Amino acid sequence: MASTAGLVVDIVDLPQQVGAIKNVHLETSAPADLGAEMIGAQEDSPLIVDAELTSLDNGVLVRGSADVHLRGQCVRCLRDIEEDTTVSFDELYFTPEAAQAQADEGDEEADELFTVGDTTLDLEPALRDALVLALPFQPLCRQDCAGLCAQCGQRLDDLPADHHHEQLDPRWSALAALLPEQEEDPEQGERH
To answer: How far is residue 35's CA from residue 16's CA, in Å, rounded to a whole number?
Structure first.
């Protein structure tokens, strides 16, 4: 996956001495597909990231948070959802040598480790993983959202409390076809 330039941090000025710290503040736009299918960051919406990068023997520890504008749909009524949230993340970015050492030791997940570049560090993968884990599995517009009417498809919250549909048992439909049409006599109020 291509990285978003706004989330790539220059680490040339981060000393390689263990414990050295660099603070980063980024104001950029959210990349595409940052989130899950039903809810995620709206592409090109403002994205503010604050992170602390700490040098370690085998890489860089990144502790950060991001303010994200989310957009999605309620899984019950399909109403649009928009909200702002803050997601936190802690990730270790390995040096290429340390990642290779993990692979040489038989670590099956070594190819999925985050790695630092020669002079840069891409925050997008860490942010992407943290946001997906923080998002609701089934987003709702409200916890007590009633959803949609199974017969007409309208939002139950917008319909009167006594909303219902007359439904005949489908097993009797063949017999109903045998009965003649009945009309109501307005003067007598009876059916003929």
So the answer is: 33
